[in-house]
Amino acid sequence: MSEINEAKSSISRETVAHVNRFGGEHYQYGFSSDIEADRIPPGLNEEVVRLISAKKDEPQWLLDWRLDAYERWQTMAEPDWAYVDYPPIDYQSLCYYAAPRSMENAPKTMDEVDPELLRVYKKLGIPLAEQEVLAGVRKVAVDVVFDSVSVGTTFREELATHGIIFCSFSEAVREHPALVRKYLGSVVPKSDNYFAAMNSAVFSDGSFVYIPKGVRCPMELSTYFRINEANTGQFERTLVIADKGSYVSYLEGCTAPMRDENQLHAAVVELVALEEAEIKYSTVQNWYPGDENGKGGIYNFVTKRGDCREARAHISWTQVETGSAITWKYPSCILRGDNSTGEFYSIAISNNRQQVDSGTKMLHLGRNTKSKIISKGVSAGHSSNVYRGQVNMHPKAKGARNFTQCDSLLIGDKCAAHTVPYIESKNKSAIIEHEASSSKISEDQLFFCRQRGLDPEEAVSLIVNGFCREVLQELPMEFAVEAQALLSLSLEGSVG
Amino acid sequence: MSLIEIKDLHVNVNGEPILRGINLVIKGGEVHAIMGPNGSGKSTLSYVLAGRDGYEITKGSIAFMGQDIAALPPEARAHLGMFLAFQYPIEVAGITNMTLLKTSYDALRKARGEEAMNSAQFLRLVREKAAALQMNDDMLKRQLNVGFSGGEKKRNEILQMVVLEPRFAILDETDSGLDIDALQIVAEGVNAMRSPERAMLVITHYQRLLDFIRPDYVHVLVAGQLVESGDAALALKLEAEGYAAYQNV
């Protein structure tokens, strides 16, 4: 119909404008930086595992842990149950460790970090100088991970005065081995799944957080992940421990250059919340999604799990997934402590040829445990968007409750949305509710918004923002604005 | 000067001719009413003026303030000052009334090269206009038309109109679904907007609305053509006699 053609032509004009603005592409984080890197030869074998461990000068126990994971990985098969389709990955052709050359003599403070690296983050809009404050009024402490290593962490001294540990994973292994040894792999065991096992063998860096008893973390903590090197995977590991009665809000952001080859990101995130502790973990995932024909982009195979290990603990996952060619990700909660609560708020947007298979698992083990799942999937272009969720009520989880709401919004007629809930209840006192809806942006809504003066992209953006509102409200203020802007950008060119 | 000038307008919908030679000139300060039986093309006329997709102009022209607008997308017409109060107001979940008003108001300002209005200032403006329509703050915070009664939705359309202050407004069956009290409130809102620079086209089935919004001209639309024009008295005649006389022509 003529309006659609008109909308298309106005969008292609818009797109051209964007392309010009970003010097060739509208994925604005798609630049790569010429940073001299120390890369190990491609391939995954025992030698590589030993080499990574040696590069990080790790203790024997951690090397043994890695080798055990590697051994288990070899016996495992890549999962094939997700609704994603990709050619076989040649794991032996990938490079499992790349670090900026300048990081060989680890800088002690941000001032010692290679200015070229700092410029990359400036370009990405990530403040690394402590006097720069992200977006809002509150401070945000940042740990930045570049390819395989952590480049630096801000606000460490100020956090240390509260007894909070916020540092790179490698540093935690050196400085706080007892904590790392106690909690590493305690939520996501080494052999949990294929990608978690691989990560356990070759993980290079990531962030470590420990909030002591009764401490409310005075600022947002965040990690910013950047893949720069070609043909390199990123395998980071994040471990957050909230001791009894503590609180922390943690943000995670990710981007990568545009490359024609697919790149692998297989991370593991473990959260441990002890008695009455609260962890709020938010992700804005904007890895390079590939081009409009599906060439290139990040394969994002991530295992994220939180353990409400003791009574009245609370873990909340909020994710805005707009990037990656493939997303395979199920941030989950183990509700072990009595009266503990888990939440999962998700917005997953797929456009062009992106494939998303994402959701959550809520395992109710303790009494009176509660979980809430709000998932908003938006599919456009030729993309596929799956919500896959599991709610499991253990026999001992007396009085457990779950509420799940999955909504899908379709834009255009070439995309797909699926909802795959697995619900298992082994006790009669559990209450489980599941609501699902799927809808399309209607011609009526588009015309109405345009009659009120919005161009087609603004109209779609308004409608999608409305659709995602319940989840956007859960994001920390610092990220909410960025996330809203990201929704519009991700759906660019999706009308028609 | 004429705000709207429609010349020999022929419009097809799905290949079927619906409007078959409409001629209509509306000047600043005027209120025109269009009445007609179901299926005569009233809504088609409102949509084609607002630029909705699927309404194919096969012949004739539409000029707005001297500019041919037939090829302009709906938002460009809105930017020029055209407004359509929808017969069936649209729901948008998750977007509050206030957000829609602000987004829309800012889009129109941007098109005129003006800065977005400060939120506090805008809130005051909207509250004042809403109060005149007997709408409270609660209505402004609710999601756009979600769970609104038929009457509330129609009132909401008028709120959008009085906030956006168009040069030319089309009210498409705004009276349907309104009880007599609501009708009066809406009519007062509309009448307060009447000014020498502004014109309105009121589409209705019933003469009742025209007791409250006095039209300068009344046109009868039958089978895609304006078959008779007159003053407000014509509406009374239609109310009494119906459209049968025209349909047998």
**Global morphology of chain A:** globular
What is the makeup of the main sheet of chain B? 6 strands, mixed
Mean pLDDT of chain A: 82
> What is the ordering of alpha helices and beta strands of chain B?
EEEHEEHEEHHHEHEHEHEEHH
- Biggest sheet layout of chain A: 11 strands, mixed
Number of domains of chain B: 1
Alpha-carbon distance between the two ends of chain A:
9 Å
Q: What Rg of chain A, in angstroms, do the CA atoms define?
A: 22 Å
Question: Counting H and I runs of at least 4 residues, what is the number of helices of chain A?
Answer: 12
Number of alpha- plus pi-helical segments of chain B:
10
User: Count of DSSP E strands of chain B?
Assistant: 12
Strand content of chain A: 25-35%
The low-confidence runs of chain B, each spanning 5 or more residues with pLDDT under 50, are none
Main sheet of chain B: which strands, in order across?
Answer: 6-9-10-3-11-12
Approximate strand percentage of chain B: 25-35%
Low-confidence stretches of chain A: 1-25, 131-137
Give the overall shape of chain B. Answer: globular
* CATH homologous superfamily heading of chain B: P-loop containing nucleotide triphosphate hydrolases
Question: Which fold does the CATH topology of chain B refer to?
Answer: Rossmann fold
Helix/strand-derived class of chain B? alpha/beta
Q: What's the pLDDT, averaged over the residues of chain B?
A: 92
What would you note in describing this structure?
The complex is a heterodimer of chains A (496) and B (249). Chain A has helices spanning 2-21, 46-55, 60-74, 115-124, 156-160, 169-175, 177-183, 194-202, 443-451, 456-467, 469-472, 477-490, and strands at 37-39, 98-100, 140-146, 149-153, 165-168, 207-211, 220-226, 237-242, 247-255, 262-265, 268-273, 278-285, 297-308, 314-321, 326-329, 332-335, 341-350, 355-364, 370-379, 384-393, 401-410, 416-425, 431-440. Chain A has 496 residues and is of the alpha/beta class. In chain A, strands 5, 6, 8, 10, 11, 13, 15, 16, 18, 20 and 22 form an eleven-stranded mixed beta sheet that branches. Chain A has a ten-stranded mixed beta sheet with strand order 4-3-7-9-12-14-17-19-21-23. In chain A, a hairpin with a 2-residue loop joins β3 (140-146) and β4. Chain B has ten helices and twelve strands. Chain B has a six-stranded mixed beta sheet, sandwiched between helices. In chain B, strands 2-1-4-5 form a four-stranded antiparallel beta sheet. The mean pLDDT of chain B is 92. Chain B is globular, with a radius of gyration of 18 Å. The longest helix of chain B has 15 residues, at 97-111. Chains A and B meet through α1, α9 and α10 of A and α2, β7, α3 and β8 of B.
